[in-house]
Amino acid sequence: ARVALQAYRVHDIERRGFLDWHKGEVLVFVEAVFQQLLVVPPSEAAVRAVFERFCEDATPMEPTTTRLDAKGCVCLTDALLRGTFFPLDGGGGGGGAPFAPPSPSSAAAAHRASTAGGDSGGAPQAA
After folding, report:
1. Which has the closest alpha carbon to 75: 24, 25, 1?
2. Is the pTM of this model over 0.90?
3. Which of 12, 29, 36, 106 is deepest in the core (most CB within 10 A)?
């Protein structure tokens, strides 16, 4: 979580409090986190698949959310890293794709739950 939070701070260049998918910020952020951890980053399609699960809670005011705040970005990389090291292969181990997005995404659900209950004032606490 510390590596992801540090990378988030570096990539939120304009200090807007979020990274935007359409500007490529989320993907570049994810790639930076994986590279800092010396892990091969997932494909853009895999990142987008998990990213979209984090945006399922779009509001009527913003039905097509394409950005994540610091907490969302940290949770996104957590879900992607878990998917990298514990891929779903439909069976009991061995084989399977090197990456499979978590389903259902407990990290996305946790992010939605934490933002629904009110924001604690910004960036997540480093563990």
Report:
1. 1
2. no
3. 29
